Amino acid sequence: MAVLAVSKLRKVYGGEEVVAGVSFAIAPGECFGLLGPNGAGKTTTLRLCLGLIEPDGGSVELMQRPVPGEARPARVRVGVVPQMDNLDPDFTVEENLLVYGRYFKIPERSIRERIPRLLEFAGLAARAASSIQTLSGGMKRRLTLARALINDPDLIFMDEPTTGLDPQARHLIWERLKQLLAQGKTIVLTTHFMEEAERLCARLAIMDRGRFITEGSPRELIARHIEPHVVEVHGDEVVEWTDEARGLATRVERSGDTAFCYAADPAQLLASLSRRALRYLHRPADLEDVFLKLTGRELRD
Fold it and tell me: Is 21:10 a contact under the CB 8 Å cutoff?
């Protein structure tokens, strides 16, 4: 039975439909990704699923309970890592976990028993007495993840959990999320990092302007939407060479001084480039190519 089931969910702000009839269901133990440009409706969808805002249409069942009607008892079995860290700066690392655990009416003795394990999991065992102001961005993010686990949730919502982190911190959080999935936890993940989605998500949806525009596993989406080979070409002669490239590739896209050439067989493209002083990278297609094809390359504010 699905731990989260959403049907024809809608939300309107200022006359604009920011969530426009989305439907999906998430099975226990699954990592489901929600990708999309800024303003696509991802965070609003999560807030609707948690019962934090009222929908204008459709239905949500969270842990087999209707939301928002029974959101509070449903959230007892749910953890949330918000987009922005909201740790209490007046408390130490340990106190942040202790106070948060009280919101779930967990006996204090049980909370204190859980805290050392959670701090070890987050790589913060030596920082229990530290103030929040002394933590790095990566430490704060790991503490926010540990805090989301204080109630031993079955389902964890993560809204861009690694945004703003350096590669080392990002990889550490990825490893922790894989551990949670191995324990049978269910994760709903929004992210702007395509590599993150490919590594973690069994299934994902790309969302734009409030709607799901495609859904499937990362491999399925790459096979469905993109040619298997990509040749990225850079340099002053790109504009001149692009006309030739259009006859050699299935599809060519330009962005500034870079041409992205998509092909089932790149041999002719590579032969052409061997005769020119252009820098290029030949690689397999990935999820970012799918994302940019379906949502466009223009900047979103």
Answer: yes
